[in-house]
Design a protein that fits this description.
This protein is mainly alpha-helical.
């Protein structure tokens, strides 16, 4: 039983490390592929709209405003709320 738990923990740590070190474009493609798969299965609709949609949007980046070639639009600054 202990070996099974250790194997699961090592596998989970490996997957998290691979995900974090993966290029952003590949992560976005993986999320879009997961979204396409979940779209075919109604059981995942709630999770898909609540969790996966937010992750896809954050992985997609800032959009056109974040490109250095677009001088007409400035990216929105992220502000921290709370006392300083």
């Amino acid at each position: 039983m202990q070996q099974l738990i250790v194997t699961v923990l090592v596998l989970a740590a490996t997957l998290v490390s691979v995900w974090k070190l993966m290029p952003a474009r590949r992560r976005l493609r993986a999320l879009l592929a997961l979204d396409a798969w979940m779209a075919r299965h109604e059981a995942f609709e709630h999770w898909r709209t609540r969790v996966l949609a937010k992750r896809i949007q954050s992985a997609a980046g800032t959009g056109c405003a974040g490109c250095a070639a677009n001088t007409g639009v400035r990216p929105q600054a992220r502000t921290q709320s709370g006392p300083r």
